[in-house]
Specification:
There is one protein chain. The chain has 137 residues and is an alpha+beta fold. The chain has a single domain, classed as Gcn5-related N-acetyltransferase (GNAT) (Aminopeptidase), CATH 3.40.630.30. Helices cover 33% and strands 23% of the residues. It contains four helices and five strands; from the N terminus they run βααβββαβα. 22% of the residues are buried.
């Protein structure tokens, strides 16, 4: 298994993986749209786990010059529990640190206790915050 930066040739594999992870996405989480937007903005912060030429995991990061964010750690169900998510997150942390990032944030959907446990095992802590959002457009 290899962790690396996203390449244009990964497009179909990434979209397929994201569709597999969320087969009925909401309009604001459409895999093809999300990938196109990432390709247009900070494309160097999209990371791929590849095994045998197949995209088996991804994570997206963002950095605003102050804080970094991790978005959408996705691993194919057939490849879970092999350390792929951990490898992706470690890679993302190193890449963000190279940019000067010294604080990393992420959000977990309520009820996803498996993800919370994974992130806690990697040094993330639950912070006393209220997460708020607003859809634009």
């Amino acid at each position: 298994m290899k962790i690396r930066h996203y390449l244009e040739q990964d497009k179909a594999g990434v979209i397929n993986l994201w569709q597999e992870d969320e087969p009925n996405p909401s309009p604001w989480n459409d895999p093809a749209l999300a990938l196109r937007q990432k390709e247009e903005f900070q494309p160097g912060l999209l990371y791929i786990a590849e095994e045998g030429g197949e995209v088996v995991g991804t994570t997206m990061a963002g950095y605003d010059g102050h804080r970094g964010w991790i978005y959408g750690v996705v691993v194919s169900p057939a490849h879970r529990r092999k350390g792929i998510a951990t490898s992706l997150l470690n890679f993302a942390e190193k890449e963000l640190a190279k940019l000067g990032c010294n604080k990393l944030n992420l959000q977990v959907r309520d009820g996803n206790e498996g993800a919370v446990a994974l992130y806690q095992s990697l040094g993330f802590a639950i912070e006393p915050r209220v997460s708020m959002g607003k859809r634009l457009g």
